[in-house]
Design goal:
5 helices; globular; 231 residues; alpha+beta; 13-stranded mixed β-sheet; single chain
Amino acid sequence: MAVAAPSAQSMDCLRLEQDSQIYGAGTIFSFGKDGFRWSNPANGVSIMAHAPEWKVQIYNAKTNRIFETPLNKYEGHMLRISIIFWGFSFPRIPFDEGPKENILGLQCRSFKMKKLNKAEKVEKGIDTLFDAKLLTTKDLPYPPQVLAFVRQQYNFPALGDLPLSLLIERKGKKKQFMLQTKKITKVNLPPSDFQAPAGAKRAPNDKDVLRGSDENSSLDGLMQDIDRKGF
């Protein structure tokens, strides 16, 4: 893992550069023992929390709007729409644990979808799914709040340790990464990285935060779909 130069009044953290069919390419997930920050540079949205309360803040830098919610009530903003995209939710998938594997020099537990017949898949609501594979690791130090956030952000099943990868294959489709960790870097970050800037405007809900100033943006369109379809 590469090491970035430290800065004054900073804390030791890890920065994971990730891609996802749910949230897009180039997301950045940074965390240490006292906080985390997930950000999507493409749309200006950051999600962060810090000790001791670990209250989740959803912040849009383009509109300077913020919404706060307890960690145990947070769900990823693409959760409902992604279920429509894929036709199922990931916790429905039954997994068997397989041999350990390595990602970026980290030892990972591997979980592969159980072999099911057509009737069993229909019963579980995953009849469009051909295969799935989840990789998790405990080789990275993280507080339990980080694990809780990742599982809720991606609606992943509670298996193993910190998820680094989920690959699915649907009938007639190419394999797709719901999460793919591409690079891990040790960094030193100031505590301010784990909270929204002072003066952010309070929003009544997370959808109001996620709407950008450009009403034609792709994220706005998804939020409007959620409103219209009542997900």
